[in-house]
């Protein structure tokens, strides 16, 4: 029987500037390396389902806590682009030169950073339910978001102090909730299709990931939101490796217009726009996502 949380190997990587990057490994240990970028505000904790599907597909999953989350040191004032250097060191530690990567939600921009900046080291990348750049030409960034995300990004636009005040309260709510009540705390962000999947082991895994990520505070969450609300430090149009963009049409966390905008940026981008899916329900595409990544050479 699959458990909610994978039995992952955990390890720390010391980065060139002295920071620590905390990482997890599960799936097929002799399989193809795929590095996972977690959402906001979660962590690198690997769900049992992800590990099971990865093992079935011959994939070695390595995930990590983004800077400021869980066991990873903070990187103050980081840009989205800064993740690429951390991932290059993580791949080196894994003993792999060329690799594949994927991520969801707040991990999506970081996937795109690796695709844009790591050049020949990247074989392929998949971004699930990612926001587009805040300054994206022709996109109303906030349009269609649920009230929780409208409040959060509005605070991020105002600056670090109001954002921290908002997120400290949100963190207290996360740490006081239960898997059974998690969907209630996210009500404005969940269309019916997402409410249906945020139960049982899925809710247990989601809450465990958030609890680990926020265990020492909101630095990672704060820095993610500030990074999303300013220039990313790279041009999505310049991506020159195969990228898959997946987006649900019912998504209230990241509205479909974000995925449509990203999909139109480069002829190297393949899009799977799924009208009946939400944000969390896109996890149902995981096996197909892995298959797509493995097909890219």
Order of helices and strands: EEEHEHEHEHHHHHHEHEH
Number of strand segments: 8
Which ranges are low-confidence, i.e. pLDDT below 50, for 5 or more consecutive residues?
none
The class by helix and strand makeup works out as alpha/beta
The average pLDDT value, as a whole number, equals: 98
Strand order of the largest sheet: 1-2-4-3-5-6-7-8
Which outline best applies? Answer: globular
By CATH, the architecture is named 3-Layer(aba) Sandwich
Spatial separation of the terminal alpha carbons: 34 Å
The description of the largest β-sheet is: 8 strands, mixed
Give the helix/strand layout:
Layout: E1 9-14, E2 20-27, E3 32-37, H1 48-57, E4 59-64, H2 83-93, E5 99-104, H3 108-117, E6 122-128, H4 147-158, H5 160-176, H6 182-185, H7 192-197, H8 200-213, H9 219-228, E7 243-248, H10 256-263, E8 269-274, H11 286-295
Parallel strand pairs: 3-4, 3-5, 5-6, 6-7, 7-8
Antiparallel strand pairs: 1-2, 2-4
How would you describe what is shown here?
The protein has helices at 48-57, 83-93, 108-117, 147-158, 160-176, 182-185, 192-197, 200-213, 219-228, 256-263, 286-295, and strands at 9-14, 20-27, 32-37, 59-64, 99-104, 122-128, 243-248, 269-274. The chain is α/β, with parallel strands linked by helices and 297 residues long. It has one domain (9-295): 3-Layer(aba) Sandwich (Rossmann fold), CATH 3.40.50. The protein has an eight-stranded mixed sheet with strand order 1-2-4-3-5-6-7-8, with helices on both faces. Helix 4 packs antiparallel against helix 5 (160-176) and helix 5 (160-176) packs across helix 9 (219-228). The chain is globular, with a radius of gyration of 17 Å. The two termini are 34 Å apart. The model has no long low-confidence stretch (mean pLDDT 98).
């Amino acid at each position: 029987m699959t458990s909610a949380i994978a039995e992952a190997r955990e390890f720390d990587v010391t980065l060139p500037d002295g920071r620590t990057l905390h990482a997890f490994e599960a799936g097929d240990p002799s399989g193809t390396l795929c590095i996972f970028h977690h959402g906001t505000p979660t962590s690198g904790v690997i769900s049992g389902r992800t590990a099971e599907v990865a093992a079935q597909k011959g994939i070695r999953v390595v995930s990590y806590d983004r800077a400021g989350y869980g066991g990873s040191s903070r990187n103050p004032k980081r840009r989205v682009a800064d993740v690429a250097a951390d991932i290059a060191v993580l791949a080196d530690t894994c003993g792999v030169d060329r690799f594949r990567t994927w991520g969801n939600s707040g991990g999506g921009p970081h996937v795109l950073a690796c695709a844009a900046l790591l050049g020949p080291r990247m074989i392929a990348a998949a971004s699930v339910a990612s926001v587009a750049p805040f300054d994206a030409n022709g996109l109303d960034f906030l349009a269609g978001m649920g009230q929780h995300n409208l409040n959060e990004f509005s605070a991020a636009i105002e600056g670090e102090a109001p954002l921290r005040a908002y997120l400290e309260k949100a963190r207290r709510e996360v740490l006081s909730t239960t898997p059974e009540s998690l969907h209630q705390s996210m009500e404005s962000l969940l269309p019916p299709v997402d409410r249906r999947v945020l139960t049982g082991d899925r809710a247990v895994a989601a809450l465990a990931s958030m609890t680990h990520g926020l265990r020492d505070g909101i630095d990672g969450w704060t820095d993610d939101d500030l990074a999303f609300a300013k220039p990313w430090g790279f041009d999505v149009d310049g991506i020159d490796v195969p990228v898959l963009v997946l987006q649900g049409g019912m998504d209230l966390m990241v509205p479909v217009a974000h995925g449509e905008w990203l999909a139109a940026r480069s002829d190297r981008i393949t899009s799977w726009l799924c009208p009946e899916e939400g944000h969390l329900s896109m996890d149902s595409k995981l096996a197909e996502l892995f298959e797509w990544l493995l097909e890219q050479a």
